[in-house]
């Protein structure tokens, strides 16, 4: 039943229904043309024009996104307009936008950068200035030192350490995740959370209302609250007669954050479901990565969680009360940052682009989905043409056939420019990582697709120097050794009908 409901609520099903409705509408129009044809044509033209003007009016929206919606509205003048109102808008209501902006303003005031830390990094390597300054100014992301970091190349490595840390919690456990699914991974975690809540700790859980819609029972948040766990659901899917209530439907909380006692933080690509730790096989070996921070840098993860908690609950937090107390010896710098679709600043994509533009020797990229805009394609191709060793790892066994088809549609242009592409043959790779020149790495929740880069709430950590950069590099190289390199022959052999399908799907890639 859940699979049926998932399909009924999917964009694919809704789009098919709208196309069918459009066909029925035109048949009815032909039958009644002699009587209402002129009026109907006028209404169709007016509606299409108004929606297209609304699409064009947002000049800060990616051109591919605008072109796609204009084509939909032109070919489906009535139902396409409805589909745009339902799924197309990248923006929330003014009330929600202003509410989140107020929270961001308060949090930014509490995220004070340490100029001494910044000066020390830029003295050691001035080339980092572009990335550090951008994230500091536009993501309110301080740069930290004295923060210990540990990298986990597989989900099972992450989970073992995660359980150890939450079992040792003394004051609080905060968790924010896109997907939570009942199973052994979540079951073990839940037992600890219940125990800690019973001991009087501040235990909070925030999960996405759509991401976990089909993986948890109805009203699961009530069940958790009854067990003493403070639980909120971000943007649950509910029926409403007001279109404005669907303005946030496209915006999902895709973040992955856990903070223990305000001193230890976890993030990366993992959700809480058994395939992420290879206790259930779905698409071969599931490779995902995570990381742990201890020390001052955890503060950014804490504030990121608290901002979303305040947004959903309507509360206000004094963020300065959550500053970590302990410092650790570290050999590098970390800059955790988050991204919001409500501020019209594409933080995640710009952070990736800055890595590409500064690379001198190599950039290795790991992403489960490669659905990229022209700016990203141009940056990847220019780096490769300029002599940078650009390598991208994508899944060998995909989780969504249509996304995989679109991903492969980008291969010819990238290969022609000299980008090397590898498909992870053991299974599905869900990690989201950049590493460059043995000096810089980004690990987090942001995929290289339109949804992550334009529509979702995301979080990542940028690392400058230190062991963790080398750990990410070594893990990516190990994954490449297990992968099959894509060649020109692979893309040349594409049958005509598969090419046609890829071309059609790519037109609608901003929906994926």
What does this structure look like?
It is built from 20 helices and 17 strands. Helix 6 (94-110) runs antiparallel to helix 12 (298-313). It is globular, with a radius of gyration of 23 Å. The strands form 3 sheets. Strands 9-16-15-14-10-11-12-17 form an 8-stranded mixed sheet, sandwiched between helices. The chain is of the alpha/beta class. The model has no long low-confidence stretch (mean pLDDT 87). Helix content is 47%, strand content 17%.
Please give the order of strands in the largest beta sheet. Answer: 9-16-15-14-10-11-12-17
The amount of beta strand, in percent, is 15-25%
Largest sheet: 8 strands, mixed
In angstroms, what is the radius of gyration? 23 Å
Low-confidence stretches: none
Helix run count = 20
Q: What distance separates the N and C termini?
A: 23 Å
Q: Helices and strands: which structural class? A: alpha/beta
Shape designation: globular
Level of helix content?
40-55%
Mean pLDDT: 87
Number of strands: 17
């Amino acid at each position: 039943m859940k699979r049926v409901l998932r399909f009924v609520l999917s964009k694919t099903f809704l789009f098919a229904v709208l196309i069918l409705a459009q066909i029925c509408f035109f048949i009815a129009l032909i039958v009644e043309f002699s009587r209402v044809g002129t009026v109907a044509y006028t209404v169709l033209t007016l509606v299409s024009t108004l929606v297209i003007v609304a699409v064009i009016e947002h000049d800060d929206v990616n051109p591919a996104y605008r072109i796609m919606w204009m084509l939909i509205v032109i070919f489906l003048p009535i139902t396409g307009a409805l589909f745009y109102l339902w799924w197309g808008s990248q923006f929330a209501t003014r009330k929600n936008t202003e509410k989140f902006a107020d929270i961001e303003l308060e949090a930014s005031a509490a995220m004070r950068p340490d100029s001494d830390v910044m000066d020390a990094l830029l003295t050691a390597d001035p080339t980092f200035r572009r990335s550090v300054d951008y994230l500091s100014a536009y993501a309110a992301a301080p740069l930290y030192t004295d923060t210990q970091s540990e990298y986990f190349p597989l989900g099972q490595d992450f989970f073992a350490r995660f359980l150890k840390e939450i079992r040792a919690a003394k004051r609080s456990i905060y968790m924010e995740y896109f997907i939570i699914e009942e199973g052994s991974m979540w079951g073990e975690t839940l037992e600890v959370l219940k125990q800690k809540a019973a001991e009087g700790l501040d235990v909070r859980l925030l999960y996405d209302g759509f991401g976990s819609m089909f993986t948890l029972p109805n009203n699961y948040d009530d069940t958790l609250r009854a067990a003493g766990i403070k639980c909120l659901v971000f943007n649950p899917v509910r029926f409403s007669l007001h279109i404005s209530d669907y303005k946030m439907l496209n915006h999902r909380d895709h973040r992955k954050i856990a903070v223990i006692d305000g001193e230890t933080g976890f993030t990366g690509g993992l959700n809480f479901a058994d395939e992420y730790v290879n206790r259930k096989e779905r698409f071969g070996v599931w490779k995902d990565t995570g990381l742990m921070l201890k020390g001052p840098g955890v503060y950014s993860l804490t504030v990121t969680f608290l901002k979303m908690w305040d947004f959903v609950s309507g509360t206000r937090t004094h963020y300065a009360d959550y500053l970590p107390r302990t410092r650790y010896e570290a050999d590098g710098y970390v800059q955790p940052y988050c991204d919001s679709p409500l501020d019209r600043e594409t933080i995640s994509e710009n952070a990736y682009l800055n890595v590409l533009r500064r690379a001198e020797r190599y950039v290795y990229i790991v992403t489960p989905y490669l659905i990229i805009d022209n700016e990203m394609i141009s940056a990847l191709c220019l780096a490769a043409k300029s002599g940078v060793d650009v390598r991208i790892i994508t899944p060998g066994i995909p989780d969504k056939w249509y996304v995989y088809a679109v991903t492969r549609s980008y291969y010819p242009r990238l290969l022609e420019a000299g980008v090397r592409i590898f498909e992870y043959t053991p299974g599905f790779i869900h990690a989201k990582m950049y590493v460059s020149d043995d000096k810089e790495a980004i690990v987090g929740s942001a995929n290289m697709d339109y949804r992550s880069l334009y529509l979702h709430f995301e979080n990542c950590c940028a690392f400058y120097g230190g062991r963790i950069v080398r750990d990410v590099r070594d893990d990516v190289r190990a994954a490449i050794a297990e992968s099959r390199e894509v060649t020109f022959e692979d893309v040349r052999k594409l049958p005509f009908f598969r090419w046609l399908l890829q071309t059609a799907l790519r037109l609608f890639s901003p929906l994926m």
